[in-house]
Design a protein that fits this description.
Helices cover about 85% and strands about 0% of the residues. It is built from 4 helices and no strands. It has one domain (about 1-104). It is flat. With about 100 residues, the protein is an all-alpha fold. This is Guanidinium exporter. Its main location: membrane. Pfam families: Multi_Drug_Res (PF00893).
Length: about 100
């Protein structure tokens, strides 16, 4: 169950990271509220996951999921560059996440 909490926490991290772009400096109410709710949900789920997982593994996987998802959505939604080097680095992060899962 801890890994499910951790994946959900990572997905909420993606939500708040992308949500920050849409808050326009917290001047838009609905995106700001959704972003804040995603932040709270992300940290709460991370806390639940860390009851059973090592903190180093949990935190690294949480930030890795957030990093990969945010980078990919930045490419898809926000028109950020999808260079070969950038995609290769995203692939390395995914490999690290999988390695930590297998080593846990």
């Amino acid at each position: 169950m801890a890994w499910i909490y951790l994946v959900l926490a990572g997905l909420f991290e993606i939500g708040w990271a992308i949500g920050l772009k849409y808050t326009e400096g917290f001047t838009r109410l609905v995106p700001s509220l959704l972003t804040g709710a995603s932040m709270v949900a992300s940290v709460a789920l991370l806390g639940l996951a860390l009851k059973a997982l090592p903190v180093g593994t949990g935190y690294a996987v949480w930030t890795g999921i957030g990093t990969v998802g945010t980078a990919l959505l930045g490419i898809y939604l926000l028109g950020e560059p999808a260079t070969a080097a950038r995609l290769a680095c995203i692939g390395l992060i995914v490999a690290g996440i999988l390695g930590l899962k297998l080593a846990a």
